[in-house]
Amino acid sequence: MNIRSLALAPALVLGLAFPALAEKIPLNELSRYLNRLTTATAEFTQVNPDGSISTGTVYIQRPGRVRFEYNNDNTLVMASGGNVAVFDPKSGGPQQYPLSQTPLSIILDANVNLGRANMVTAHTESKNATVVTAQDPQNPQYGNIQMVFTPGPTQLRQWVVTDDSGQKTTVILGEMREGGSIPASKFSINNEMSRRN
């Protein structure tokens, strides 16, 4: 499995039952929603590029921090301090690379602006959800992220990350608990390295 996809992998469109006909949510409203989202926790289901399915809990602290804890598995993916670290029991120490080289950086950016030129490549309404595909306008070669939002109130429900090699990872979020505080230690790559050594 491509570890970069595993970490930052989003989104199968589920046949979720939503209220009848919704207009697509404007990009400026989606940017406002993401910028207001400071902390969130949710259970997730991940569909990996090879078709296997993983589950776990994701912790988000914007800007720049995320932690994916996997159930029944000692794998852990964290982003903090501008880096992503993938702790995979099979590969020893963590694999690390810059967060800016992953499409997930779009959600975690300090100032999300989906209205930037060449950032959004698709913006549609499907099954009463708004689907937005975005990329880093300066570095489209890093791949893209397809985000699915539902209205009333606006909420991020899933994402699909297509990485730089074209592999897709989908993350489907359960009920998102927004707000509250998450200990900084949850996002410390160094703490996790010390704990595992």
What does this structure look like?
This protein is mainly beta and 197 residues long. Helices cover 14% and strands 38% of the residues. Strands 1, 2, 3, 4, 5, 6, 7, 8, 9, 10, 11 and 12 form a 12-stranded antiparallel beta sheet that branches. A hairpin with a 5-residue loop joins β1 (39-47) and β2 (53-61). The longest helix is centred in the first third of the chain and has 10 residues, at 27-36. 35% of the residues are buried. The model is unreliable at 1-20 (pLDDT under 50).
SSE layout and pairing:
Layout: H1 3-7, H2 27-36, E1 39-47, E2 53-61, E3 65-70, E4 76-80, E5 83-87, E6 95-98, H3 105-108, E7 120-126, E8 129-134, E9 144-150, E10 155-162, E11 168-173, E12 177-178, H4 189-196
Antiparallel strand pairs: 1-2, 1-11, 1-12, 2-3, 3-4, 4-5, 5-6, 7-8, 8-9, 9-10, 10-11
What would you say about this model in short?
By secondary structure, the protein is mainly β.
Give the rounded overall mean pLDDT.
86
Shape: globular
Oligomer: single chain
The major sheet is characterized as: 12 strands, antiparallel
Percent of residues in β-strands: 35-45%
N-end to C-end Cα span: 24 Å
Low-pLDDT segments, ≥5 res: 1-20
What is the helix fraction of residues, given as a range?
A: 10-25%
Structure classification:
mainly beta
Radius of gyration: 16 Å
The SSE order reads HHEEEEEEHEEEEEEH
- How many helices does DSSP assign? 4
Q: What's the total number of strands?
A: 12
Signal peptide: 1-22
Protein name: Outer membrane lipoprotein carrier protein LolA
Pfam families: LolA
Keywords: Lipoprotein, Signal
